[in-house]
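// run 5 | inverse folding | seed 20
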């Protein structure tokens, strides 16, 4: 019998490097589409360098405030994960798991969590919403 649970999988996913996490999200997204639209592309055809994952729109979601916050504060938080509640910084740091834990501890229903790459090292947006 397997001890595999959502929580253990989430903890392991959060421990991955940003690049591997992007590859995982891309693969899961492709498999989700296959459930709706038939077979998905083989894993080799998935471009992990071009991942942009945005959560489904929620009627109470405010994505303009976090985007404005990122525009203003991007330089200051380069190379870090940030967790936002609207336009309010909740947590930041180099470890995604710590930022997710801080956001979860505050009970924010629709957090905006992203990694801000260092200038010149950008290779695509990474926006995650696991809540």
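// decoded
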């Amino acid at each position: 019998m397997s001890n595999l649970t959502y929580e253990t999988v989430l903890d392991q996913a959060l421990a991955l490097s940003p690049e591997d996490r992007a590859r995982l999200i891309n693969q899961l997204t492709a498999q989700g589409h296959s459930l709706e639209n038939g077979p998905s592309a083989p894993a080799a055809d998935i471009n992990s360098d071009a991942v942009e994952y945005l959560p489904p729109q929620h009627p109470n979601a405010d994505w303009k405030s976090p985007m404005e916050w990122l525009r203003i504060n991007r330089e200051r938080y380069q190379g870090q994960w940030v967790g936002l509640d609207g336009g309010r910084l909740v947590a930041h740091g180099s470890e995604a798991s710590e930022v997710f834990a801080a956001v979860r501890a505050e009970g924010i229903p629709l957090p905006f969590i992203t990694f801000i790459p260092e200038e010149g090292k950008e290779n695509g947006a990474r926006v995650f919403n696991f809540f």
